[in-house]
Amino acid sequence: MQVGLHVSIHGSINSSVDNAVAMGCSAFQIFTGNPRGWTPKPLSSNDITSFKEKLAASEIDRFATVAHMPYLPNLSSPEDDLFAKSLNSLIDEIKRCSKLRIPYIVAHLGSHRGSGDEKGIEQLVKAFTKAAKETQDGVTILLENTAGQKNSVGSDFEQLASILSQLKPEKRFGVCLDTCHAFAAGYDLRTKKTVASTLQKFEKTIGFEHLRIIHLNDSKGEIGCNTDRHEHIGLGQIGEIGLAHVIKFANSKNTPIILETPIDERRDHLGNIKKVKELA
Fold first, then answer.
1. R_g of the chain, CA atoms, integer Å
2. Does the N terminus or the C terminus of the chain have fewer Cβ atoms within 10 A?
3. Count of C-beta atoms within a 10 Å radius of residue 28
4. Which domain holds residue 27?
5. Which residue in the list 68, 112, 212, 245 is annotated as catalytic?
6. What is the pLDDT, as a whole number, of residue 274?
7. What's the pLDDT at 58?
8. What are the average pLDDT values for consecutive 10-residue runs of the chain, which has 280 residues?
9. Has 61 been annotated as catalytic?
10. Is 215 a catalytic residue?
């Protein structure tokens, strides 16, 4: 199985590979720069070379590595200035991934800020289409399902499928399925039967061929709460039984699993990786 964490790039971006290996990851996710800023530090040629060399020397498959967009961009924004900055950030992140040979970039779909789903989706499609045109092949943009917070776009599988169907070229786009977000949006993942039903809905509306990464997170909130609050694997409202079946599904499809779980006195990152392996 391919399972890992969102790891730190503190010091230099190539240290992320060291961090992933040290924690026994067979997959990992990073921010390529400061996630709370608009202007990431340029990637030096030494950092790029070292990252690629360390990854090649590890046992981690390149296609089990993924980057995540920073927090500030809002690709659904109706505000021209914020939309333009967000689009530029997306294009820059894709180019950074290309230099590092990271095959996937996960994008939050953002908030329409009260302008309505139709306007938000129109902005999203415009941003993703332009970003694909202005960057080279080799990096797939992954749309991450949302928890259904107020004004958010993409919590519903049908809506996510509708957005995906408007994006061209098709090969440049895929989906990252977050279990906490899906559960918070009302998709039941607590039992073998409900996991099967939810995955069947995903297959029917979106299609497993578009699924590239699974963000495996339990949920602090109850089903349908529309709140994005991650919990340790098996200690939240989804629980061990349901997540075990999601893990087995991911393994059957060779889909990398990334954990975005908390660290506290109950459990650390290594404890959550261990739990995933037990449930597998």
1. 18
2. C
3. 26
4. 3-279
5. 68
6. 97
7. 97
8. 97 96 97 95 97 98 98 97 98 98 97 96 98 96 97 97 96 98 98 98 98 98 98 98 98 98 96 97
9. no
10. yes
Structure confidence at residue 95 (pLDDT): 98
As a whole number of Å, the end-to-end CA separation of the chain is 9
Q: Crossing angle of helices 192-205/157-165, nearest 10°?
A: 30
Q: What is the CATH number of the domain that holds 257?
A: 3.20.20.150
Question: Do 96 and 43 meet the contact criterion of CB atoms below 8 Å apart?
Answer: yes
The stretches of the chain forming alpha helices (DSSP H) are 15-22, 45-57, 80-100, 117-133, 157-165, 179-184, 192-205, 239-252, 269-279
Helix or strand or coil: residue 57? helix
Instruction: Establish whether 71 is a catalytic residue.
Output: yes
Which pLDDT belongs to residue 100? 98
Q: Which one of 108, 112, 190, 245 is the catalytic residue?
A: 108
Q: Which two tokens stand for residue 202?
A: 């995903």
For position 133, what pLDDT does the model report? 97
278 is catalytic: no
The span from the CA of 265 to the CA of 268, in Å, is 8
Task: Note the pTM of the prediction, 2 decimals.
Answer: 0.97
Calpha distance 172→181 (Å, rounded) = 23
18's CB contacts (< 8 A; 6+ apart) are: 54
- Please state, in angstroms and as integers, the Cα–Cα distance from residue 62 to each residue in 28, 59, 94, following that order: 10, 9, 16
Main-chain phi, psi angles of 17, to 5 degrees: -65, -45
